[in-house]
Amino acid sequence: MTHNNVSFFQNAKRVVVKVGSGVLTLDHGLNLDIIKSITQQICKLMENGMEIFLVSSGAMASGVKRIGLLKRPDDIPQRQAAAAVGQSGLIMEYEKAFSMCNKKVAQILLTGEDLFNRERYLNIRNTFNTLLSWKVVPIINENDTVSVEEIKFGDNDNLAAIISILMNADILVNLTDIDGLFTKDPRTNSDAELIPLITRINEDTKKMAGDIPGALGTGGMLSKINAAVKVTSSGIPMVIANGKDSDILTRLFSGEQCGTFFVPTLREIDAKR
Q1: How far apart (Å, rounded) are the C-alpha atoms in residues 242 and 223?
Q2: Helix and strand counts by DSSP (H, E) for the chain
Q3: What pTM does this model have?
Q4: Domain locations in the chain?
Q5: 3-262 is classed in which CATH architecture?
Q6: Which of 58, 84, 128, 234 could potentially form a cystine with 145 if both were Cys, beta carbons 3.0 to 4.6 Å apart?
Q7: What is residue 215's three-state secondary structure?
């Protein structure tokens, strides 16, 4: 990682952390150790003066486990019902974990309509700013219970990118269950190599990403690359790293090279667009 990339982490004041289902789930339920670990790392960053937004998947996995289903349901009403059952469980675990370091959390469930309507968008931004001023951690997820195709963000990678732009974040940290972007799928190719730095995203980058979703998530590597396109073209860097690695956030923000870092281009698109 060049000196410049380290400075992005060292100078970051406002950070969006997105945690994927692959990180948060264990045997189709929630991995409570990981939730505790990520929470403690976020608390440390906040003690260093950072403002953190947490975009968290895992509601579906939590619901599947609580209802006692064997796998993620295929039909939409069942999925939406499972997510509804799981969302409260997910927030409850975060609430418990954050209370260990005396932090409060707020649950924010959004649909595409909320952010593409100017008035609602401004309301949400004001709410976020108020929560930050109270030192409350906003935990954001797509409102799966009401989301239909027309108003979906598609996945939390896209949602995290939109929040980063909306709130003018300094960096987006995308935590997944593999170490970053590889030349091929590392789960099926032993000769796959990690790409530590991407200065420009092109068709080749997208080809490498392929479309490899996890068992419980919706977004594969390609949706992460699409999120990187969004934020980097708005001047915000993004890193894809392995959320299961111990102390991954602490290590990233102390300048250690982990994962794949996407260098931002100059800010060309204003936040209003």
Answers
A1: 16
A2: 11, 10
A3: 0.91
A4: 3-262
A5: 3-Layer(aba) Sandwich (3.40)
A6: 84
A7: coil
